[in-house]
Write a structure and sequence with these properties.
The protein is α/β, with parallel strands linked by helices and 248 residues long. It folds into two domains: 198 residues, Aldolase class I (TIM Barrel, Alpha-Beta Barrel), CATH 3.20.20.70; 48 residues, no CATH class. Helix content is 48%, strand content 15%. β5, α6 and β6 form a beta-alpha-beta unit. α4 runs parallel beside α5 and α6 packs parallel to α8. The two termini are 31 Å apart.
Length: 248
């Protein structure tokens, strides 16, 4: 499974790229604005350049299908790794499948966004979308099970050998990432704050501190016996470790 960063923060993107974790980035107008990006083109170009050949999703800002097409063509000209986000329907509930199909025929990679049902994801994939974005958090808000939507979509795509990939977005907590991964998502797009929560664990901290303290004790004992540990220098301060009845 791939992990995308759901952000426009260049510092965070670089950090997670250096960690070797993220495979792309997704944005939308709200994310760009929250990160102080007021020039859509300039902001997108900077992120795209930082990503190299990894994909960057940039969303159109219109509710009119013909304008969606025109904006998408313009946006994709900014950088070769840009994928254009097209809402699967308009605010009036009209399908944008024709826009998606036209863009695909023109060689534009499309992320069909705001999918909240298997039906929507299925039709977007049939229209040729490169990605179908399923909004897990918003599906949960309606009292439905996002894992079921993800699993059904993943199985259907596999059965019919369709190339569209599922992006699971609208992540509200780290458990959403785990559930999406186990449900068969091809990609989960995660805000950086949740990526940091995913790697941290208070008992991992305790375990690392305990092992380090034990190692330093062993090094001190060896020094008192006139022995040496090649390549190991003693620390000035030993880490504080809470008492524990067992180790391992």
């Amino acid at each position: 499974m791939e992990i995308f960063a759901d952000t426009a923060d260049l510092k965070e993107i670089k950090t997670w790229l250096d960690f070797g974790v993220i495979d792309g980035v997704t944005t939308n107008p709200s994310i760009l604005l929250a990160n102080g990006v007021y020039d859509l083109r300039l902001g997108a170009v900077e992120i795209a350049r930082l990503l190299g050949d990894k994909p960057l999703s940039v969303e159109v800002v219109t509710d009119e299908p013909d304008e969606m097409y025109s904006q998408a063509v313009e946006i994709t000209s900014w950088a070769p790794n840009i994928v254009v986000k097209i809402p699967v329907i308009t605010t009036q509930g009209d399908p944008t499948l024709g826009v998606i199909a036209r863009l695909v025929q023109a060689g534009v990679k499309v992320n069909a966004t705001a999918c909240l049902s298997f039906n929507q994801a299925m039709l977007a994939a049939k229209a040729g979308a490169t990605y179908v974005s399923i909004f897990a958090g918003r599906i949960s808000d309606e009292g439905a099970d996002p894992s079921e939507v993800i699993t059904n979509t993943a199985q259907w795509l596999k059965t019919w050998n369709l190339p569209s990939k599922i992006i699971v977005g609208s992540i509200r907590e780290t458990m959403n990432v785990q559930k999406a991964a186990l449900a068969g998502a091809h990609v989960v797009t995660v805000p950086p704050k949740f990526l940091r929560q995913m790697i941290d664990h208070k008992y991992s901290r305790f375990t690392v501190a305990q092992f380090l303290a034990d190692g330093l004790s062993a090094a001190e004992r060896m020094t008192s016996l006139g022995l040496t540990m090649s390549g190991v220098n003693g620390a000035k301060k030993r880490p504080q470790v809470a008492p524990s009845k067992r180790k391992g």
